[in-house]
């Protein structure tokens, strides 16, 4: 069956969690998927092939670090040389840092933005010209509910996702004349490798004035993530977007989160702040 936006998909951060499930979901629907990982074991031009049991789809894993311009260029041109096109780009690679704003160094904040925000920018800069040449495409950026509600002690993570949403909204307008559609997906707490990969800022130790609240807040984050749904729910939402001719600008994943995001439009900001502070501190 023909695919509305084409069948060559590029998923960043497909070695684990949400990216892994997105890659699998596309593969099972017959898409030709190129997933990425930074893992050293894979050589630049070496691929691990996973084939779908139910369709002609596959996943090939290639090496990519979204923080490295040369690595982005190599990975994108590898796929372009193989396929002559990239139809769907899913910017999924990301991680979270935790710590109060006061305890976070500029270097730590920059590291967070380098992956979560500039990683998306680098990928778009290299993939958009290919999509333009081919007359269109679809870009799906994995944001977070934290781009709707800035979470205490995850301010830099939240800010990086707010920034992804700002980029996506403008990109959607800029690339519309070239037939390139842009959507953002906002998952809530999801059970993945994200929790284990979280980095704690150096200043967040027992000497921090925030230590007690920070600790409680982190315990809450971990509990919510590890008891959250699996990454399949996010993959399902992404696939649904890919099947729409005119994808929506923003999709929040999970009924509970959808309701909260909807209500936020009508509730006073002070009330929203009160609720978030009750939840996390
Ligand atoms: N889990 C949640 O609760 C949740 C909620 C909302 C949004 N999200 C977002 O969902 C996305 C996926 O996260 P996840 O929950 O699936 O976490 P995960 O299981 O830790 O997966 C993260 C993926 O990102 C890749 N990655 C990290 N840094 C990278 C870099 N510099 N260059 C290339 N790839 C990189 C990792 O690949 P390698 O280590 O193999 O390179 C891995 O495949 C992230 O953008 C995250 O912010 C997650």
CATH homolog superfamily: NAD(P)-binding Rossmann-like Domain
What is the level 1 CATH name? Alpha Beta
Could you spell the SSE succession in H and E letters? EHEEEHEEHEHEHEHHEHH
**Biggest beta sheet summary:** 8 strands, mixed
Content-based structural category: alpha/beta
State the distance separating the first and last CA atoms. Answer: 50 Å
Low-confidence stretches: none
The distinct ligands, each listed once, are: NADP nicotinamide-adenine-dinucleotide phosphate
Helix content: 40-55%
C-alpha-based Rg, rounded: 19 Å
Strand order of the largest sheet: 3-4-2-1-5-7-8-10
Percent strand? 15-25%
Q: Please count the helical segments.
A: 9
Mean pLDDT: 95
**Structural domains: how many:** 1
- What is the CATH-assigned architecture? 3-Layer(aba) Sandwich
Instruction: Assign an overall shape.
Output: globular
